[in-house]
Amino acid sequence: MESRGEWRLLVLVLRLGVMLMFFLPGIGAAQLVLSGGNVGVGTITPNSRLTVEGTIESTSGGVKFPDGTVQITASGPTWHQILSADQRFVLVMNNEAVLDKETGLVWERSPNANPRNWDSAWIHCVQRTVDVRRGWRLPTVEELASLINPEGSNPSLPAGHPFENVQNYAYWSSTIYPYDGGLMAVWFDGGTISPYMKTVNTIYVWCVRGGQGSPSIP
């Protein structure tokens, strides 16, 4: 080795080899290769910083990415996961929004505290800008209800959530009530779901980003 940096890399490779012997059955020192600054495990021709031929198993903890998020599954959110608040919610967009890893939706961290009729709520979300990003909308009733924890109180959210300024009151959704043309709303004081008249009632709005979008309401 000609430089201190190369010595450090060799030490790192040797340590990695020892660890991988526990995780990859059949991996031995002869199958751990350093080539051109790249590390190969189970291959003698690594073409990236770390090339592994075989399966790497993580039994706990998941994989941590450069943005600081930890992912415990390679599949996208499928709504079947039940995660604790510290694993479920991640602050994103300069801490102004929250990623829900159970659903893949991005929510405002601190919803606006001014009650509005539905038309005003819709416009508010469409025009919303967070961390120089638009693309916000009113959530569907199912998306809004996915935040509810019936056992929670003041408001009815999962314990340890990172949200701020959420009211113990009703929030608009984009879902039509099929019987009288009203719109569905979700109460964050117990989780009740009920219809409201879009031009008469004034309740709160909580914008969301991502997902399938919402239908156009006449």
Question: Secondary-structure blueprint of this entry?
Answer:
Layout: H1 4-23, E1 32-35, E2 38-41, E3 50-52, E4 63-64, E5 70-71, H2 85-88, E6 89-92, E7 97-100, E8 106-108, H3 118-126, E9 136-137, H4 141-145, E10 170-176, E11 183-187, E12 193-196, E13 208-209
Parallel strand pairs: 2-3
Antiparallel strand pairs: 1-2, 4-5, 6-7, 7-8, 8-13, 9-13, 10-11, 11-12
Describe the structure.
The chain is α+β, with helices and mostly antiparallel strands. It folds into two domains: 49 residues, no CATH class; 125 residues, Mannose-Binding Protein A, Chain A. It contains four helices and 13 strands. The chain has a five-stranded antiparallel beta sheet. A three-stranded mixed beta sheet has the order 1-2-3, with helices on one face. Strands 10-11-12 form a three-stranded antiparallel beta sheet. It is elongated, with a radius of gyration of 24 Å. The mean pLDDT is 83.
List its salient traits.
alpha+beta; 218 residues; elongated; 2 domains; Mannose-Binding Protein A, Chain A; three-stranded mixed β-sheet
